[in-house]
């Protein structure tokens, strides 16, 4: 190539630009001159060859990358959306306390209401009385009060409406640390009277009512009577029927026209009229009144057992009928309050020792009874002291065990 005049824009000879464009014979080419690359063995890595960069994950690129040498935590996938389920109706927890509160109000309110309908009687005797004693003593009296009987019931019983002037049931119920004891006093028991002489204990009720009867019982036994409870015909019949019947277990067939009674031997459910006849009959069995007082305790205990069944409290209709029937023909002393009445109801339930006052035929009249001077004090003193009643002193008829 012919030499071009200088100044024509062609690099001058000897300059790097000239050597780069036209080549140079210099043994030491400039550092930025194009150099010949020696052939490399097959498979050998070339330091300046183009390398394939690793593929970057989409998540890393989206997040702006991550410093070298750190470990990326993979993103957690969102949980699947739950499937919609049909809502089922559920009772709120707040409803349960409300129901329990209403039940409690009903259980307390019904007896309190019927308490206001119960007749009160002054049963405190005059004169000297035994001092207060441990435990609680109730005098239970069954009268012929029948003013709450229906016309149909009176026709069956063949009894007029009476005011409760006679009694054939006298029971001392004791509760305390020594246990529960139910002691019957036969109505034919002779007791001393202040004017001298003797009379049957039930005559005190006929002539002087509750105060005189309490005085006679305390004088005979030395037991201080804390409360007085009188049950009439109607209370027995209507209460038994309100329970739907009670179980009695006669030990023999019993047919007593005077008591309107005709039943077979063995345990059986009976209605109110039959239960009353069973507790009043005295002309069928050998020991007459002594067997009768044992049956009276049996009926009273059966009522107590029925009263404590769960069905009494969970059935509001039954609960109302029982309280209504029990309050309809009952009298209590003026000092008794609703709490005392509740304690009396509890005392009627559960296990208790059932006895008849230890007795003997009266020397003056074999058809009358007197307290056995040898065995009766042991029973009386156990009740007075609130101690365990001795077994020998507690028998169903009051007669000594053979």
UniProtKB/TrEMBL annotation:
<dbReference type="InterPro" id="IPR004474">
    <property type="entry name" value="LytR_CpsA_psr"/>
</dbReference>
<protein>
    <submittedName>
        <fullName>LCP family protein</fullName>
    </submittedName>
</protein>
<feature type="domain" description="Cell envelope-related transcriptional attenuator">
    <location>
        <begin position="166"/>
        <end position="306"/>
    </location>
</feature>
<keyword id="KW-0812">Transmembrane</keyword>
<keyword id="KW-0472">Membrane</keyword>
<dbReference type="InterPro" id="IPR050922">
    <property type="entry name" value="LytR/CpsA/Psr_CW_biosynth"/>
</dbReference>
<feature type="compositionally biased region" description="Basic and acidic residues">
    <location>
        <begin position="46"/>
        <end position="61"/>
    </location>
</feature>
<feature type="region of interest" description="Disordered">
    <location>
        <begin position="1"/>
        <end position="88"/>
    </location>
</feature>
<comment type="similarity">
    <text>Belongs to the LytR/CpsA/Psr (LCP) family.</text>
</comment>
<feature type="compositionally biased region" description="Polar residues">
    <location>
        <begin position="23"/>
        <end position="34"/>
    </location>
</feature>
<keyword id="KW-1133">Transmembrane helix</keyword>
<feature type="transmembrane region" description="Helical">
    <location>
        <begin position="93"/>
        <end position="115"/>
    </location>
</feature>
<dbReference type="Pfam" id="PF03816">
    <property type="entry name" value="LytR_cpsA_psr"/>
</dbReference>
């Amino acid at each position: 190539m012919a030499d071009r005049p200088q100044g024509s824009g062609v690099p001058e000879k000897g300059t790097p630009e000239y050597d780069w464009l036209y080549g140079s014979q210099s043994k030491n080419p400039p550092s930025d001159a194009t150099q010949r690359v020696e052939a490399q063995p097959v498979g050998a890595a070339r330091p300046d060859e183009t390398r394939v960069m690793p593929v970057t994950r989409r998540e890393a690129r989206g997040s702006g990358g991550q410093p070298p040498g750190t470990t990326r935590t993979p993103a957690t996938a969102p949980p699947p959306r739950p499937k919609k389920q049909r809502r089922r109706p559920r009772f709120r927890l707040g409803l349960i306390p409300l129901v329990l509160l209403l039940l409690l109000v009903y259980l307390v309110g019904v007896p309190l209401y019927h308490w206001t309908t119960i007749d009160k009687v002054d049963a405190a005797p005059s004169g000297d009385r035994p001092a207060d004693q441990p435990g609680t003593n109730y005098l239970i009296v069954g009268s012929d009060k029948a003013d709450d009987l229906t016309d149909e019931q009176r026709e069956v019983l063949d009894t007029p409406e009476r005011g409760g002037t006679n009694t054939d049931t006298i029971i001392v119920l004791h509760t305390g640390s020594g246990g529960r004891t139910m002691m019957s006093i036969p109505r034919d028991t002779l007791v001393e009277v202040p004017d001298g002489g003797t009379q049957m204990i039930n005559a005190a009720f006929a002539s002087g009512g509750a105060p005189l009867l309490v005085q006679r019982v305390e004088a005979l036994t030395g037991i201080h009577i804390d409360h007085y409870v009188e049950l009439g015909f109607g209370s027995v019949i209507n209460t038994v029927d309100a329970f739907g019947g009670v179980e009695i277990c006669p030990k023999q067939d019993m047919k007593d026209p005077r008591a309107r009674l005709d039943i077979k031997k063995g345990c059986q459910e009976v209605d109110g009229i039959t239960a009353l006849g069973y507790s009043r009959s005295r002309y069928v069995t050998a020991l007459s009144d002594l067997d009768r007082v044992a049956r009276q305790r049996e009926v009273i205990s059966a009522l107590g057992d029925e009263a404590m069944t769960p069905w009494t409290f969970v059935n509001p209709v039954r609960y109302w009928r029982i309280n209504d029937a029990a309050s309809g023909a009952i009298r209590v002393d003026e000092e008794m309050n609703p709490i005392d009445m509740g304690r009396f109801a509890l005392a009627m339930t559960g296990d208790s020792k059932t006895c008849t006052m230890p007795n003997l035929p009266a020397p003056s009249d074999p058809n009358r009874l007197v307290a056995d001077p040898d065995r009766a004090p042991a029973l009386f003193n156990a009740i007075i002291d609130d101690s365990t009643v001795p077994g020998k002193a507690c028998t169903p008829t009051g007669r000594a065990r053979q």
